[in-house]
UniProtKB/TrEMBL annotation:
Pfam families: T2SSE (PF00437)
PANTHER family xrefs: TWITCHING MOTILITY PROTEIN PILT, TYPE II_IV SECRETION SYSTEM ATPASE
Protein name: Type II secretion system protein
Domain AAA+ ATPase: start-end pairs: 202-356
Family: Belongs to the GSP E family.
Lineage summary: Bacteria, Pseudomonadati, Pseudomonadota, Gammaproteobacteria, Oceanospirillales
Superkingdom assignment: Bacteria
Signal peptide: none
InterPro entries the UniProt entry points to: AAA+_ATPase (IPR003593), P-loop_NTPase (IPR027417), T2SS/T4SS_dom (IPR001482), T4SS_GSP_E_ATPase (IPR050921)
Length: 386
């Protein structure tokens, strides 16, 4: 019964939205140039007219909900508006009109919102992309973009998405957790923080390793706060997420190809360019591809204290992944030479993990101290208690 009532409400919402849009067109009201309060009054009046003309029995509470939903459709991103406004939510995952999931405090859960149908999902995606000059259609069915507030959005539609259009949003937050908040939540200890701060202040080259959702960017942002104030920092990211409270930061961001497939600027190109900009330290948001070559060489040639993150489930896995990235990037050298390059470039690996209850924590901090017989010899500076 509840499902039938919900379906009826979605149908009513769709018809009300179309009615309101027609009234806006008739009155010549441009949504982008009209205040939200004025639009709210107009939507309330128009929605009330539609309900009265069609003699739909609605309580005051249901009418207020319909007005809110319709206003979100007219001015924003429809059902996603309350999720985007909720500061507790980190990720929003739309798997289809009836399947919306959110991540709160590291735990995925199904959201109560839903879309009317596939067309509704696509309409919201296109509204997100319109101000960015990006498009989504059969000829370009996949897009990765950044919203004006810094949130990252990835969208993919049929025929690539077999079960309907899909949206993945990683929300941007300028309020990164402080060291004390991470200590209070059990993500790290005072001893762990002290170890990491000493590594940053002594200009050790650092890689933060962890699986999906372990808080790599949060940790990179945290330890970057301890870079001495007189140093010049260059950050390179696919989507700007780092918020460094530092007086001398130059932020660079990669650029995807345009609709004709041209104009892409890769992380590798930005690392090469960054070396010509007199950085004291380079902070690369994440190592994913051939930029690893330039980053390791920079770490080996005077840019001490540089940092990055990598997707790996253990410190050993992180080293293997770096080796793999070098190999697929065409770096031709013997296994020993590659081991020496990595061992001499990297000083510290900070490994993060995500516990079954959703909590994130630093599992270990290791120092790479190569020996003749073990190029990846590790000294454990910190290990979390099981």
């Amino acid at each position: 019964m509840a499902g039938r009532i919900d379906a009826e409400y979605q149908h009513l919402k769709d018809r009300t939205h179309r009615w309101v849009v027609e009234r806006l067109d008739e009155e010549g009201i441009e949504v982008g140039n009209t205040g939200r309060d004025q639009l709210a009054d107009f939507v309330r009046t128009a929605a009330g007219q539609h309900i009265a003309l069609n003699r739909v029995p609605l309580s005051t509470q249901d009418l207020n909900q319909l007005v809110r939903d319709t206003l979100d459709e007219v001015t924003g991103y429809g059902p996603l508006e309350p999720l985007l406004a909720d500061p507790r939510i980190n990720d929003i995952l739309v798997n289809g009109p009836d399947s919306v999931f959110i991540e709160v405090a590291g735990v995925l859960q199904k959201a109560s919102v839903r879309f009317i149908n596939d067309d509704h999902v696509v309409r919201v995606i296109r509204r997100m992309l319109a101000p960015l000059g990006r498009r989504l259609d059969e000829s370009s069915p996949m897009v990765d973009a950044r919203l004006p507030d810094g949130s990252r959005v990835n969208a993919i539609i049929p025929p690539l998405a077999l079960d309907g259009p899909s949206i993945s949003i990683r929300k941007f937050t300028g309020n990164h957790l402080s060291a004390q908040e991470l200590i209070d939540s059990g993500s790290l200890t005072e001893a762990c923080l002290d170890t990491m701060v000493k590594a940053v202040e002594s200009q050790r080259n650092i890689i933060i390793s962890g699986g999906t959702g372990t808080g790599k960017t949060t940790m990179l942002n945290l330890i970057s706060q301890y870079i001495p104030r007189q140093e010049r920092i260059l950050t390179i990211e696919d989507s700007a997420e780092l918020v460094l409270n530092h007086p001398h930061v130059v932020r660079l961001e990669t650029r995807p190809a345009n609709t004709e497939g041209r104009g892409r600027i890769s992380a590798r190109e930005l690392v090469i360019n960054a070396l010509r900009m007199r950085p004291d330290r380079i902070i690369l948001g994440e190592v994913r591809s051939n930029e690893i070559i330039e980053l390791l060489q920079a770490m080996n040639t005077g840019h001490d204290g540089s940092m990055s993150t990598i997707h790996a489930n253990s410190t050993r896995d992180a080293l293997v992944r770096i080796e793999t990235l070098l190999a697929v990037s065409g770096y031709e050298a013997s296994e020993t030479a590659i081991g020496r390059l990595i061992g001499s470039a990297l000083d510290i690996i900070i490994q993060l993990e995500r516990l079954p209850d959703g909590r994130r924590r630093v599992s270990e901090v290791v120092a790479l101290t190569p020996t003749e017989n073990d190029l990846y010899h590790m000294d454990y500076l910190y290990r979390s208690q099981a």
